[in-house]
Amino acid sequence: MEFHLSSSTPSGLKDYLIQMLKRQITYRKLYALYHVSFNVYKGEVVGIIGTNGSGKSTILKIISGALKPTKGKVYVDKKKIQLLTLGTGFDVELTARENVYLNGSIIGYSRKFLDEHYDEIVEFAELQDFMEEKVKNFSSGMVSRLGFSIATAGDAAEILILDEVLSVGDEFFKKKSLKRVKEMIHGGSTVLMVSHSLQTILDNCSKVVWIEQGELRMIGEPKTVCEAYRSSKAEGE
Ligand SMILES: Nc1ncnc2c1ncn2[C@@H]1O[C@H](COP(=O)(O)OP(=O)(O)OP(=O)(O)O)[C@@H](O)[C@H]1O
């Protein structure tokens, strides 16, 4: 997966357009993923680990179809996928109620589904008294609680993709959300999850993929891969 990063720093959209028309914008290539290949079998719970910027979210986005790879192929039935990621698709100028519908429709829920699950979403997020407030007045914890609650409404799909959804809100909400995710994970879905918590990976996964700087470092049994990852970090690699 190749990204093109702009090397110039325009002061705004107008400046950007002027620089673009004058062909003053230069780009550098960034290989976010390079020659990464692995299989996920039905019923497996696969954890993806790696340091910040190693390419974990990019893999999940490619698999779920949110990003098209510049090279390579993903063989998956996209209709069966549910991608759970937090914080995308919120408009802070809208109320929490409006964001349930906005964010929900971006995730792929129908209006009917959201009408039917609205109360349950609000109740789980414990935001009953705040739904007519603009989201810009919410704390970050409140935003992620709402995001988590929307993302996990309804039944889990056959293929579940979780991007760091296990560290949401305060201690109490964390416990509650972990319980819900565990039910989803162990309810028979095939799961791909990214987490920085090795304990969460060890507790839940049957296989682990370690990505470092866009390349596949190791794949295999959780304990072996997590230990290798830990010791590489301890050695200050
Ligand atoms: N849309 C994009 N445009 C340009 N570069 C991107 C884009 N998305 C990701 N990148 C870059 O690709 C690399 C991998 O990013 P990615 O978000 O996949 O990492 P990650 O392993 O999920 O990181 P983290 O643990 O911090 O969440 C990073 O260098 C990032 O800056």
From TrEMBL:
SUPFAM superfamilies xref list: P-loop containing nucleoside triphosphate hydrolases
GO molecular function: ABC-type transporter activity; ATP binding; ATP hydrolysis activity
Any one GO CC term of the record: membrane
UniProt keyword Transport present: yes
Residue ranges that the Swiss-Prot or TrEMBL entry lists as coiled coil: none
Sequence ranges assigned to domain ABC transporter in this UniProt record: 18-237
Keywords attached to this entry: ATP-binding, Nucleotide-binding, Transport
InterPro entries: AAA+_ATPase, ABC_transporter-like_ATP-bd, ABC_transpr_TagH-like, Bact_Polysacc_Export_ATP-bd, P-loop_NTPase
Homology family: Belongs to the ABC transporter superfamily.
Protein name as catalogued: ABC transporter ATP-binding protein
